[in-house]
Design brief:
Elements: H1 7-11, E1 25-37, E2 43-57, E3 62-68, E4 78-84, E5 89-95, E6 102-109, E7 129-136, E8 139-148, E9 151-153, E10 156-158, E11 161-168, E12 172-182, E13 194-206, H2 221-224, E14 233-234, H3 237-248
Parallel strand pairs: 6-14
Antiparallel strand pairs: 1-2, 1-13, 2-3, 3-4, 4-5, 5-6, 7-8, 8-11, 9-10, 11-12, 12-13
Length: 254
C-alpha cells in the first residue's frame, strides 16, 4: 500500500467532500505506531495497543474505552475502563484480574462534546481528497488523502503529515494512518532520516451495540462488587493522565 501519493495522482483525484463518518458504533480498535530509518535498515514497533469494547454514541454523546491487561492480546481481560454517559462526569474504573469485577474507581467532572476524543478519532480532514479505492479486510474501501504541513507552536514542532482515511460502505471508518518524516533529533526535528507511521484499525464493527446505553453506565450487580459512584474518589493528576492516555491512545494525530 502506498502512503505517499505523487502530486499528479492527487491532482487527478475526485473533487468530492470528505465523508462525515458514522459516530455511533462499537469496535475493537487496534493501534500501531512504528518508526524506521528512511533507508529501510531498521523497523521498531513503538506502540501496539488494542482497545477491546471501544464504543461511542453520537446522539447521547456517550463513550467507553477499555484497556486490556495485555495490550498485545485482544483476548486478555480488561484492566481499566473510562466511561462517559453524557452526564458531565467521566469515570475511571480499575477492574480485578478477572476483568469483570470492579476494584476501584475515580471520577472527573467536565462535559465532553463530539469535538473531543474519541469522536474526533474518526474524523477525516475537510481538505481530504478521494484518491481511489483499495482493499482492507477483504472489503473495498475509499481512500481519502490529505497532506498536513508541519508547524511550530511554542517551541513544539510537528513535522509534515501524510494522512489517509479509509471508508467503507455507509461511511464506516475502517482504518486511518499517518506518515511523518523527521531528523535524527527525534519527532519534530529537521530532516527525513526517520519515518514514523501510525495506524488505527477498526475491527468487529457493531453499530447496533453502541445503541445499548448500559455500555456507558456505571457497573451494577455483581460487576459493581458493592461499589457505587459515591465510593469513587476525585481523579488526581495521575488518574487524569491515565484517562487522557486512554482517550488519545497514541502520539500521532490521525
Amino acid at each position: 500500500m502506498k502512503f505517499i501519493l505523487a502530486a499528479s495522482a492527487i491532482a487527478a483525484s475526485q473533487a468530492l467532500t470528505s465523508p462525515a463518518p458514522a459516530l455511533t458504533f462499537c469496535a475493537t480498535l487496534h493501534q500501531e505506531l512504528t518508526t524506521a530509518n528512511s533507508d529501510g535498515s531498521s523497523d521498531e514497533v513503538v506502540v501496539n495497543l488494542e482497545y477491546q469494547g471501544s464504543c461511542m454514541n453520537y446522539d447521547t454523546v456517550s463513550w467507553r474505552q477499555d484497556t486490556l491487561s495485555d495490550p498485545t492480546d485482544a483476548n486478555s481481560p480488561i484492566a481499566q475502563s473510562a466511561i462517559y454517559s453524557g452526564d458531565g462526569v467521566t469515570y475511571f474504573l480499575l477492574w480485578k484480574e478477572d476483568g469483570v469485577t470492579l476494584d476501584q474507581c475515580a471520577y472527573l467532572n467536565g462535559v465532553n462534546t463530539v469535538s473531543e476524543m474519541p469522536f474526533s478519532l474518526v474524523n477525516a480532514a475537510p481538505t481530504a481528497e478521494n484518491v481511489g479505492s483499495t482493499t482492507i479486510d477483504d472489503v473495498t474501501v475509499d481512500d481519502w488523502f490529505a497532506f498536513r504541513p508541519g508547524s511550530t507552536v511554542n517551541h513544539m514542532t510537528t513535522p509534515d503529515e501524510y494522512m489517509h482515511w479509509y471508508f467503507g460502505e455507509g461511511d464506516i471508518m475502517v482504518e486511518s494512518d499517518c506518515v511523518q518524516y523527521y531528523g535524527s533529533g527525534g519527532s519534530g526535528s529537521a530532516g527525513n532520516t526517520t519515518i514514523q507511521h501510525g495506524r488505527r484499525h477498526y475491527e468487529n464493527y457493531d453499530a447496533a451495540g453502541a445503541e445499548d446505553l448500559t455500555e456507558y453506565a456505571f457497573p451494577t450487580g455483581d460487576a459493581a462488587n458493592g461499589i457505587t459512584t459515591d465510593d469513587c474518589i476525585p481523579a488526581d493528576n495521575s488518574v487524569q493522565e491515565q484517562i487522557q492516555k486512554m482517550k488519545v491512545g497514541m502520539t500521532a494525530n490521525f
